[in-house]
Amino acid sequence: MTGCCSFCPCFGISGDDDDLGRSNLDPVLLISGIGGSILHSKNKRRGFQTRVWIRILLADLEFKKKLWSLYNPKTGYTETLDDDSEILVPDDDHGLYAIDILDPSVMTKCLHLKEVYYFHDIINMLLQCGFKKGTTLFGYGYDFRQSNRIDKAMEGLRIKLQTAYKASGGRKVNIISHSMGGLLVSCFMALHNDVFTTYVNKWICIACPFQGAPGCINGSLLTGLQFVDGLGSFFFVLRWTMHQLLVESPSIYEMMANPEFEWKQQPEIQVWRRQFKDKKTSLVVLETYGPTESISLFEEALRDNEVNYDGRKIAVPFNFSILQWATGTRQILNNALLPTGVSFYNIYGTSFDTPFDVCYGSETSPINDLSDLCHTIPEYSYVDGDETVPAESAKADGFAAKARVGVGARHRDLLRDKKVLRLIQKWLGVSPKHSKTSRVTNISAAD
Predict the structure, then answer these.
(1) Which of the residues 40, 120, 178, 411 is marked catalytic?
(2) What is the predicted pLDDT for the residue at 22?
(3) 144, 237, 334, 400: which is deepest, by most CB within 10 A?
C-alpha cells in the first residue's frame, strides 16, 4: 500500500531505496524537543493505539482524556489519569515517523500545515545527501512530559545510539538535537559519559534552553501554553487544557531559569497587586519575584488549581516533589562536561522578540488575589532570541564549541531555515546528491 502513495505529491518520496546508503557516511541521530514527538495512547487491554499528540481533529478532548497526568514521586514518572491506557512514542521508520510530521494525517500533509512539520526538512535534506533510513539516519522521540534524566529516556537514547553505531558498521554517531532535546543529551552525557564517548562523534545543538527559557516557562506554569494562535487555536489544544498537564510535567520545571547563571539581568515575574490597608482603603503596588522568590508565587497562585476528570475533582497545585527532582537535574546540567574527542556545534535563534520578564495585571487593573493569575493573560518584556528561548540562554552551553552561530529565525523555523541546513551540511561534510524526499507512513489505527 505504501508503495502506491510514493507517487502522490502529498506524501513525497520514500528514502528507503538501497542506493541511498553510502558506507562513507557517519550515522545521524535526530533528537526532538518538547512537544516534538508524536504520542500514542495505548489501551492496556485491547492494545489499540490512538494518536493523542499532535492531532487536529478532537485535539482538546483527546488531550484531556488521555494525556492529563499526575506526577508520582515514588516512581519519578508522570502517569496518565486514565488507568486503562499508557502513553507510548511510536518507533516506526527507525524513529523518524514520530518526529517528522507531528500530525501525519492525509489532510495535514496535503494542506502542508507547517505548524506540524517538525524535522521534515532536515530529514529530506539528509536523504538528498545520501543518508539511508535505518542505516545512517535515525530519529529519537520520547515522552516529553517526563524528566530529561528519567531512566526510560536515558535507556532509550543508549539503545538508539548503539543501534545507529552497529547499523552503520561501527561508525560513530552525529547527533542533531532541537530545543529541550539538547538538555536530554546533556543529561545523558553527564550520567553516561563513557557511553557517550564510545558512540558519539559530533553533536549539533539547535535552539537549546541551556540556562532555561524564563518567560515561556514562567508563563506556562501560571497560565499554560498556546501552541497555535488565532482561528487555528479552536482546532487545537486550548491554553488552560495544556496548563494542567504542564504543572505536572518534570520537563517544564527543568527549563525554569537557572538561578546560578549570571544573567545580564535576572528574569522576573511582576505582579501589579492591590493591597488593602483596611476594609475601605487600598493601594496598588508592583511586586517582583526573581528565579528563587518565584517559587512562593507559584505555590500561592496554584493553591486552588484543580481539574475535573471523569466526575472527580483532582487538585493540581504547584508540585514541590517535581521541583526537588528538577533541582537535582539542574545540578547535573551545570556539571555536564563535553568528552574529549566529541565536536560540539551550537546554533541559536536571534532577531525575534523573546519573552523574558512576565507581568500580570496593571496599575489600573491590579490583581486582587494571586490565584487570579491562572486566569489572567500576562504581558511580557522581551529580549533577543527565537521567540521561545533567549539567545543569552541558548548560546551559554558551557562547552568548548567548535562553532556557535546565531541565525535569525523562530524556534521551530530554525529546523527549516536554509542557513541552518547549509551549516548542518558543512559540519557533517556532506552535500545533496539525490532529489528524493521523506514519505511519512500512514498508520491508520492511530489516527
Answers:
(1) 411
(2) 46
(3) 237
- Of 69, 179, 220, 294, the active-site residue reads 179
Residue 353: which H helix or E strand, with range? strand 352-360
Question: Active-site residue 386, yes or no?
Answer: yes
DSSP H or E segment with residue 366: none
Position 3 pLDDT exceeds 70: no
Q: Cell 574527542 identifies what position? A: 341
φ, ψ of residue 435 to 5 degrees: the values are: -105, 10
444 catalytic? Reply is no
Which CA distances in Å does 130 have to 23, 29, 177? 10, 15, 20
- How many percent of the chain have pLDDT more than 70? 89
In the chain, % of residues over pLDDT 90: 82
Q: What are phi and psi of 276, to 5 degrees?
A: -100, 125
Whether the pTM exceeds 0.85: the reply is: yes
- Tell me the CA distances in angstroms from 328 to 61, 325, 334, 423, one per residue in order: 34, 5, 10, 34
Q: How far apart are CA 419 and CA 424, in angstroms?
A: 9
Q: What are phi and psi of 206, to 5 degrees?
A: -120, 120
**Which residue out of 82, 357, 386, 417 is catalytically annotated?**
386
Three-state secondary structure call for residue 276: strand
pLDDT of residue 336: 98
